[in-house]
Amino acid sequence: METLDRAINDYAAGVFLRYFRQGALAGAESPHLDHARDLDLLRAHWALSEPVRTFLSYVLTHRHEAQSLLQFVKRTDDAVARGRIDARGTMLARRVSGHPSLVVYKEPVRSFNTGPNQVVAWVVQTASTYAARLFAVQPTGSAYAGLVEETMTDVTAVKRLDALREVLKSVSVHRRPGPGALRDAARSRRMIYRLAIAAYDTLARIEAGDGEALSGVLQSTLIGPLEQWRRFELAVGLGIGEALAAETGEPMNLALLGKTSGAPVISCGRYDIFWQGGGGLFTAPALEPSEERLEAALAAYGMNLAADRPDLVITDRLAGRAKGIVEVKYLAGDTANARFREAAGQIVRYARGYAPEAEIDRLVRTSLVALNRSPPALVDEAAAAPRAVDFEGLTDGRLRLWVRERLLAPPA
Predict the structure, then answer these.
(1) Contact, 371 vs 311, CB < 8 A?
(2) Long-range pairs for 205-211 at CB < 8 Å and ≥24 separation?
(3) In this predicted model, what pLDDT tens digit does every residue of 171-196 receive, in sequence order?
(4) Can you give the pLDDT at residue 60?
(5) In three state form, how does the secondary structure of the chain look?
(6) Which of 178, 292, 343, 353 has the most beta carbons within 10 angstroms of its beta carbon?
(7) What is d(CA 186, CA 197) in angstroms, rounded to the nearest whole number?
(8) What is the pTM of this model?
């Protein structure tokens, strides 16, 4: 079960990058990502990751370790020399200006604007930029808020250090340190530069799509829902989105979860996938006799009927109707058959609110039950029954087959 849970976390990593609700550290060993689509969020996770946080913490606890360089700056003054006099320059300056007491000299000035310090400053500025971007999209109560605030606090404190003020002013995030600066920082024996290079190299490897670097960063930063069954629901939603993209040729877009309520979590062309909501298409059906009796019994206690919601609903935005209902069941102690019966009953019940009576059978046929393991086999393909897949079905072609043959197929 632990192996399956890790596989679910890895598969849903692209969604977890955008999961800004209450959650817990999920980590990822082999994250399933679209590198081009997820790159900015991966950079933001780098800003919160262990290499960057270790680097910032070290800079704050070793404030005087940054090495300065003695440079000679050419000055011209009146009868004052704060360094080695330039005799030729002094003579020429006096003849040109007619000022007999002018002195040209080279004043020794200690500067922190050195190659290794430019690497330090670039890492600080880049971490600040991407952490701020991530902070800007955090809703109230986001699980990432604490990590972002810790990083922002450390970055702000580092920026106040006297030794780095000069070099921070001259560094731009869009202009990376040159090869000489990187080489000098890598060769230095000072820990501040070694940690800066480690953080810089980690970012470079993430941008190159290095799996080990991605895994290392996301192990310390990736957050998912608290409950494993919710993680599985998001994994199934992602799988459906990818299958829709493959079958329609349209790009798949992932939303930020927790930023806007009632919005689809995944969109692909004309199709939207809603998680724990129906996109406003649900219409409460007339109660059946047993439901009326239950409503009356609950009313005696001042209670209402529970407002259940499907786990996932796929809608056709242009047609304004539901295309399929997905019930996701994560087996812990129950049997697969028991959870499937529960899911099938929910789909039939929910379908009454998403389709008119004449269309209910069609909607049930285009729906899906997803179990994390041991799905039952369908023995009557023509029946008004949903299909079933397990977690492996998300990647072995069965989910895509359901999308092609059921979800996108024209009505019979």
Answers:
(1) no
(2) 206/42, 206/43, 206/46, 207/39, 207/43, 209/35, 211/30
(3) 788 889 999 989 988 999 989 999 99
(4) 93
(5) CHHHHHHHHHHCHHHHCCECCCCEECCCCCCCCCHHHHHHHHHHHHHHCHHHHHHHHHHHHCCCCCCCEEEEEEEEEECCCCCEECHHHHHHHHHHHCCCCEEEEEEEEEECCCHHHHHHHHHHHHHHHHHHHHHHCCCCCCCCHHHHHHHHHHHHHHHCCHHHHHHHHHCCCCCCCCHHHHHHHHHCCCHHHHHHHHHHHHHHHHHCCCHHHHHHHHHHHCEECCCHHHHHHHHHHHHHHHHHHHHHCCCEEECCECCCCCCCCEEECCEEEEECCCCCCCCCCCCCHHHHHHHHHHHCCCCCCCCCCCCEEEEECCCCEEEEEEEEECCCCCCHHHHHHHHHHHHHHHHHHHCCHHHHHHHHHCCEEEECCCCCCCCCCCCCCCEEECHHHHCCCHHHHHHHHHHCCCCC
(6) 343
(7) 6
(8) 0.83
In the predicted structure, residue 69 carries a pLDDT above the cut 50:
no
Q: Are 363 and 354 in contact (CB under 8 A)?
A: yes
The token pair at 340 is 């499937």
